[in-house]
Every structure is written in structure tokens, then in C-alpha cells.
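Handout, page 2. Input:
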Amino acid sequence: MKNSYGFDRLSRDMLFFAVILDIFALLFFGQVAGLILCSASAIIAACTLFRILSTNVNKRTSELRGYEIILGSIKSFFQKLFNRSKNDAKKHAAYKYFRCPNCKQKLRAPRGKGKIRVTCSSCGTQFQKRT
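Output:
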């Protein structure tokens, strides 16, 4: 264990997923489906153990970096969705969302201002929109 990679966030999440699969297999499925889920759980747990005991630190670090990038993009998507739904939940939403016709950057403008000239903060394109 001296030169092994060790336990990281990806290993923790893989192990957690394997335990959840085991619990799900025991509680809700019959014999065949439960066996398949338990087998998948065992494979995930074995991969987790391989990652923890591996001596190839560069490869495990790049796997972790890729996992965190994917996890960050998923988190960002749901955070944007939550923020927009929080804004739209008000009786009259405070902002109108639209995209720049040139660079497709997502922009927002206050509602109820009528026809306004908008300047894209990313590319500087000016265009008119009704809010």
C-alpha cells in the first residue's frame, strides 16, 4: 500500500453506487434482476479496489479530473435550471432570457422595458429585443 494511489472522490462515489445497487437489488427485484444488479455491484466494487491499490498515479489522476469535469458540468446545468425556475416562480419574472444572434451567448434583460437595444457582453454585437 506504500505506493498505491489511495482513496479519492471517484472511488468514494463508485463504492457508494455499488452499495446502492446492492440495496436496490435486495429490496426491489426478483432473483434474476437481483443477481444481475449484485453482479454489477461486485464489478464496480472490484474496479474501485483496483483504483485504490493502483500504482499508476498519473492515470488515476486523469480519471479523477475527467470525472470532476463531467460532475461539474452536470452540477452547473442543474444550478442554472434551478436559478431560472426560481426567477420564473415569481408572479412576474424579473428577467427575459434570449441568445445573441452572433455568438449564441445566453443573455438576460429586465422585463417590462419595451423594445430595447442590447449589447452582447461577449462579442459586442448590438441588436433590438422586446422585453
